[in-house]
Amino acid sequence: MKRAKTYLAAIPITLFLFLLTGIRVYAAEADLQPKKWINDTTKQSAADNTFYKIKIAKTGYIRVEYFLNKEPELYSKITLYDRNKKKLSESSNIYKKHTAYWALKKGTYYLRAENEVSEHMGVGETDEDGDYFQYVNIPYQYKLRYTFTAVKDKGKKATRMSQAPELKRGKTAKGLVFINEKDGVKAVYKVKVSKSGKVAFHFKLNASYFLDQSLQVRLYDHKGRLLTDGKYKKDMIYWYASGKSKVNLKAGTYYLGIYKFNAEGSGFYQIQWK
Predict the structure, then answer these.
(1) Beta strand 87-93 with 97-104: parallel, antiparallel or unpaired?
(2) If DSSP codes are grouped into helix, strand and coil, which group holds residue 13?
(3) What is the pLDDT of residue 235?
(4) What pTM was estimated for this model as a whole?
């Protein structure tokens, strides 16, 4: 009588170890060095995507580049974790080329890449939130790297206009906004315009959340009221991307405010006016 053969190879190794020992096998982990590209594939289960460990030696910000081999069907996503793999923040985008920024203090962190698509559920079916669509992960090839820029951040900044330091014409103000900071105004700078006319503002905003919009630079008058565009009276004057802009201003005192408008937002700012 022939004995039936047992094919252990047919059982995924992680499932086999769990059944045999009761020990859960976690997602893979690897060290990621600054400026070095790695190539990987997103997994069918988001929980199986690789954790990439990064070590930050001093205060500054990281720039994470995440390139998929094709356009995502819904979102590409990079998630940042602390040393205990507790989620700190995520940055989502709808393009295959995705860049994220986070301000970080000295320590150990993890990065993990994901790709999500929406899947239509059956007629009359909904998920636990009552939606007719559910998010699923599909494998995508990608490459990932990060770079680090050190920033001498002075820590607590003036958030009230009565305490705002003056930012003189041609001078530069810069700083960091961290994940654990609450929403709202994170820094305020006073601007004194001596002559009416066009004032040029220059900005560098390296920030992340959804579509990289988590920090704004807002312009206020001397009473702390948000300025509106001269042509479109209801539109506030604010900026959320790097670049430059010219605004017609009368002689007087104004304020530039660095505004954080979501909990997971983080990044680096640099402002100047001429």
Answers:
(1) unpaired
(2) helix
(3) 59
(4) 0.79
Closest among 109, 95, 77, 257 to 179, alpha carbons compared: 109
Q: How many whole angstroms separate alpha carbon 49 and alpha carbon 112?
A: 7
Token digits for 77? 């996503």
Domain assignment present for residue 104? The answer is: yes
Q: Could you give the CA distance from residue 111 to residue 142 in angstroms, rounded to a whole number? A: 14
What is the domain range of residue 207?
A: 161-273
The residues facing 206 across adjacent strands are 268
**189: in domain:** yes
Closest CA to 192 of 220, 169, 162: 169
146 and 190 together in one domain: no
CA nearest to 215, candidates 206, 223, 228, 224: 206
Q: How many residues in the chain?
A: 274
Tokens of 165: 């330091």
Q: What is the pLDDT of residues 67-89, one digit of tens each?
A: 888 776 667 788 999 999 999 99
- Distance (Å, whole) CA 149 – CA 268: 10
pLDDT of residue 239: 82
Whether 222 maps to a domain, the answer reads yes
Distance of CA 17 to the CA centre of its chain: 36
Summarize pLDDT for 89-138 with one digit per residue, the tens: 988 876 778 889 999 999 999 999 887 654 444 444 445 555 545 555 66
The vertex-239 CA angle with 145 and 158, nearest 5°, equals: 90
CATH code of the domain in which 134 resides: 2.60.120.380
- Mean pLDDT for the stretch of residues 227-252: 76
Q: Are residues 165 and 231 in the same domain?
A: yes
Q: Are 99 and 65 in contact (CB under 8 A)?
A: yes
Residue type, 67: F
Instruction: For residue 2, give the amino acid letter.
Output: K
